[in-house]
Specification:
Among the domains are: about 70 residues, no CATH class; about 190 residues, no CATH class. The protein is built from twelve helices and 27 strands. Strands 16-24-23-17 form a four-stranded antiparallel β-sheet. α2 packs antiparallel against α3. The longest helix has 27 residues.
Length: about 475
């Protein structure tokens, strides 16, 4: 090999190395994530877009052009508008992925691909048409359009009267052949013919099988007496309704289409009607109060006896309640036990100790109910279950607690001892004559002397009156 040929070969090799190096350098820097293909999808040029941008652009264009598309379906003389857009879809993702792959191949080849795409004079255009890929979506838009309502089939119907179940047996008619209709709709979609008026194919359609057992479960009720709830609200009575399911089903099965059959109902009236409960005089809570304090077993026994004596007592308008008369003598023969009492300001043991907690609780309930206090005494010493001026001490034969029913309706006392809470609750029920509210306050003239006041306000919060309802003087 002469020197000239050798130099030429070296130059060729250097040029080749430089060319390969330049190509590799070109490939190295081609790391963008945009589409290089000169492609329009439904008129949208996607070259230079990222995959996500292209998918969004194509999808938004699809939505703009198809969201208002409707197809008209006629059935048995009725016309239905089918908003078809929710059932349509386009596979923009697959088209964009295919376009993106050109120029984004292997590291070695994507450089030449880019050069070819840059020098190409060809501009491709693709029309991407929507299709129905999910049959459930097509079923949903047909149901939304109400195609089923175009059937001439009459379903079996039932009506409850006061005494009977009236059943009208259904009649076979011509209903939509939904499978055939869907084929015609898919054909129109493939032709891009959304203006077509499609006559729905029909098929003879019998009424749906009537489920007598399910209907029975729907209408059957047990007779329930009217009652008062925990908050003294009226729970209405329920009339019992029943019928012979087997007999009704047999008659319906034998009946011809369109025939009306009557099934007698078995009616059970409640023993206590709503009207009877509404006529009761003790519908409203007039006042209630709770005190806490159990004590010894003997004291709790006395509390329970006092509560039992007061619970359920009824007072007519103008009648006066006497605590001592209601409980009677507190003796061992009558079940009362020895417990702590206050005598002359000192604590001692005596039969019936503790019953003043019940009279005190009753006193406070009466104040809340705005009832007239006829007689009330304070203890000689302070007690721990209410504040000064709110107690009501009783001694059989000398000190009583009395109040008068100064309303126009009967009232009833509810008294309860709660073992778990160690509490006494007294509630007064009657008929509310107004929506007044009551506020109880006390005022000390010295540490051991106080007066108790009741202030009554109307519904608007205006003060109607303030009255003294108790004077208390304690020895300690």
């Amino acid at each position: 090999m002469n020197k000239q040929m050798k130099n030429t070969l070296i130059k060729v090799l250097i040029f080749f190395v430089l060319l390969v190096g330049a190509y590799c350098l070109w490939c190295h820097f081609l790391t963008d994530n945009v589409i290089w293909t000169k492609l329009k999808v439904n008129g949208i040029a996607i070259q230079g877009m990222t995959e996500e941008e292209a998918i969004i652009a194509i999808t938004e264009d699809f939505q703009k052009n198809y969201q208002d598309k409707q197809m008209t379906v006629t059935l048995n003389g009725q016309e239905f508008q089918v908003s078809i857009y929710p059932a349509l879809s386009i596979d923009a993702k697959a088209v964009v992925a295919s376009a993106y792959s050109l120029g984004h191949g292997s590291w070695i080849t994507h450089g030449t691909d880019r050069i070819q795409l840059m020098n190409s004079k060809t501009k491709e255009e693709l029309t991407l048409l929507p299709t129905v890929r999910n049959q459930d979506d097509l079923d949903a838009v047909l149901e939304e359009a109400g195609i089923q309502n175009g059937s001439t089939t009459i379903q079996t119907s039932c009506e409850l009267t006061d005494t009977s179940l009236v059943i009208t047996k259904g009649i076979t008619g011509m209903g939509p052949d939904l499978n055939a209709l869907k084929k015609e709709i898919l054909s129109a979609i493939s032709r891009e013919d959304y203006e077509a008026v499609i006559e729905c194919p029909t098929v003879e359609t019998a009424p749906e099988e009537f489920d007598m057992e399910a209907y029975y479960e729907q209408v059957h009720t047990e007779a329930t007496d009217a009652s008062l709830g925990e908050n003294n609200e009226i729970i209405p009575a329920v009339t019992g309704i029943s019928f012979d399911v087997e007999a009704a089903q047999n008659r319906l099965d034998r009946a011809r289409e369109g025939l009306v059959i009557t099934i007698p109902l078995e009616i059970t009236l409640p023993e206590v009607s709503t009207e009877e409960i509404e006529a009761l005089p003790y519908l409203n809570l007039l006042g209630t109060y709770t005190t806490y304090g159990g004590g010894t077993k003997n004291r709790i026994t006395n509390l329970k006896l006092a509560v039992e004596a007061c619970d359920g007592v009824e007072l007519q308008p103008g009648q006066t309640f006497s605590y001592n008369d209601t409980l009677g003598p507190r003796t061992e023969e009558r079940g009362y036990k020895e417990a702590t009492v206050i005598v002359g300001g000192e604590h001692a043991q005596d039969i019936g100790g503790g019953i003043c907690q019940v009279s005190t609780t009753l006193f406070m309930a009466c104040l809340q109910a705005d009832l007239s206090i006829v007689e009330r005494h304070n203890h000689a010493a302070r007690i721990d279950y209410v504040d000064d001026g709110l107690d009501a001490a009783v001694v059989y034969g000398s000190q009583d607690f009395r109040f008068q029913n100064n309303t126009s309706y009967p009232i009833k006392i509810s008294a309860v001892y709660d073992e778990a809470e160690e509490s006494v609750t007294v509630s007064l029920y009657g008929t509310k004559e107004n929506n007044n509210t009551v506020e109880i306050t006390t005022e000390h003239s010295d540490p051991n002397t106080c007066k108790t006041y009741r202030s009554v306000y109307d519904e608007a919060g205006n003060l109607l009156r303030t009255e003294e309802v108790g004077y208390s003087q304690y020895k300690q």
